[in-house]
Write a structure and sequence with these properties.
This is Envelope-like protein. By secondary structure, this protein is an all-alpha fold. The chain contains one helix and no strands. The protein has a domain of 44 residues.
Length: 82
């Protein structure tokens, strides 16, 4: 039950079918890569916004601490002048 060797036309047809299948897989991989890159870009932007928000909040905390320190300074200076 040995199979007959492929003719050139059959080999060409088989290779073309394989090429088409590989092209379809390549396109699928390229789409997946593109989608992952877009998702990664979104994550980077979200992280940048969160980091910026934390930096803004840290600045607010510093300002709040400074104003509390100034209030304490004004309280003590008022009591020493008595």
């Amino acid at each position: 039950a040995a199979s007959a060797p492929m003719t050139r036309k059959e080999m060409i047809a088989s290779l073309e079918a394989n090429c088409k299948e590989l092209d379809e897989k390549k396109m699928l991989f390229e789409r997946m890569i593109h989608a992952l890159r877009l998702e990664e870009a979104v994550v980077e932007v979200e992280n940048a916004v969160v980091d910026e928000g934390q930096a803004d909040n840290a600045g607010d905390d510093d300002m709040e601490a400074d104003s509390k320190a100034e209030d304490e300074d004004s309280d003590t200076s008022g009591s020493t002048s008595v």
